[in-house]
Automatic annotation (TrEMBL):
SUPFAM superfamilies xref list: MetI-like (SSF161098)
Transmembrane segments: 12-29, 102-125, 137-160, 172-191, 281-302
Name the UniProt record assigns to this protein: Nickel import system permease protein NikB
Family: Belongs to the binding-protein-dependent transport system permease family. OppBC subfamily.
A Pfam family that the UniProt record links to this protein: BPD_transp_1_N
Subunit structure: The complex is composed of two ATP-binding proteins (NikD and NikE), two transmembrane proteins (NikB and NikC) and a solute-binding protein (NikA).
One GO cellular component, as annotated: plasma membrane
Main location: membrane
Subcellular locations according to the entry: Cell membrane
Organism of derivation: Halalkalibacter krulwichiae
Ranges of residues in domain ABC transmembrane type-1: 98-299
Superkingdom to which the source organism belongs: Bacteria
Gene3D superfamilies assigned: MetI-like
């Protein structure tokens, strides 16, 4: 187990370096001049003298290799430079917004898990029943409707018409309900469909037949064996979407004026704030890598066969 974790951590390092290289390359291949973007953000007319001065301050007049090595060293120290707009350290700006994004992400994830696990499981063991038809309708609806449209519908009915929840901002738990539901709906559609298909597949496996012939109670077979194994694809999907949730809640944060770093990223794009964009992209890559590592470890605990297969190929 320890060796497996160490190997996975060691594979994260080169992947993250590749992400830094790609980000560095995209910024330098972009037609936007960072020095010109900086002067435009602070409303100063760019001149050749000012542009040369800012390029020197940003180290853009150095060889590309020197710039890349310097960038990696700074990133390893959580130094992503200074925002062109606020003139404050980027990491300080983003870290102040991370708690709001985490709050929204955790809320959406909890709702998605609480709804999709029982709904997908019951739809699988009660095929073609009313709950199965409802789960398929919810899956199609959640997968097809855009998040911004669903968010505006929730605002219209539950904030404007019924006046049950606030329209925008952050505060008590009431502020979290509508954006968390909006964020959770696509996940509910995905996880319900995955779990239903996995339950149906596992019900055809020989171990279910053997357990029934041994006289094991049906509830124990379904809960202890079928659900535990069938949930594995859902956990994999969770790993693929956890980083996406953290960094991809941009639309939800924009609709509900949620003060997270996804909304901050949109503002950075409009302002051509290159240091913020670079930090966001690298943070997204790091979150995807770490979340997939955590999910792999959870899967090894749920299904020990994964650990045994890993040792066979060593």
């Amino acid at each position: 187990m320890g060796t497996y974790i160490l190997k996975r951590i060691m594979t994260i390092i080169p992947i993250f370096l590749i992400a830094t290289l790609l980000t560095f390359g995209m910024i330098h291949l972009s037609p936007v001049d960072p020095a010109e973007a900086y002067l435009a953000a602070i409303h100063i007319q760019p001149t050749e003298e000012l542009l040369a001065q800012k390029r020197h301050e940003f180290g853009l007049d150095k060889p590309l290799l020197v710039q890349y090595v310097s960038s990696v060293i700074q990133i390893s120290q959580f130094n992503f430079g200074v925002s062109y707009v606020t003139n404050k350290p980027v990491w300080e700006e983003i870290s102040s917004r991370i708690p709001a994004t985490i709050q929204l992400t955790v809320g959406g994830l909890i709702i998605a898990i609480l709804v999709s696990i029982p709904l997908g499981f019951l739809a699988g063991i009660k095929k073609n029943s009313g709950i199965d038809h409802f789960s398929r309708f919810l899956s199609f609806f959640g997968a097809s409707i855009p998040s911004f449209l669903f968010g505006y519908l929730l605002i219209f009915f539950f904030s404007v018409k019924l006046d049950l929840f606030p329209v925008e901002g952050i505060g008590t738990w009431k502020y979290l309900v509508l954006p968390a539901i909006t964020l959770a709906l696509p996940l509910i559609a995905l996880y319900t469909r995955l779990l239903r298909a996995s339950v149906l597949e596992n019900l055809e496996e020989p171990y279910v037949l053997f357990a029934r012939t041994r006289g094991i109670h049906e509830k124990k077979i379904m809960g202890k064996h079928v659900l535990r194994i069938a949930i594995s694809p859902m956990v994999t999907g969770l790993g693929m979407n956890l980083g996406k949730l953290m960094t991809g809640a941009i639309i939800v944060e924009a609709v509900f004026s949620w003060p997270g770093f996804g909304r901050y990223f949109i503002e950075a794009i409009f302002n051509r704030d290159v240091p913020v964009i670079q930090c966001y992209v690298l943070l997204a890559a790091g979150l995807f890598l770490i979340s997939n590592l955590i999910v792999d470890l959870i899967q090894m605990y749920i299904d020990p066969r994964i650990s045994r297969k890993g040792r066979q190929f060593q």
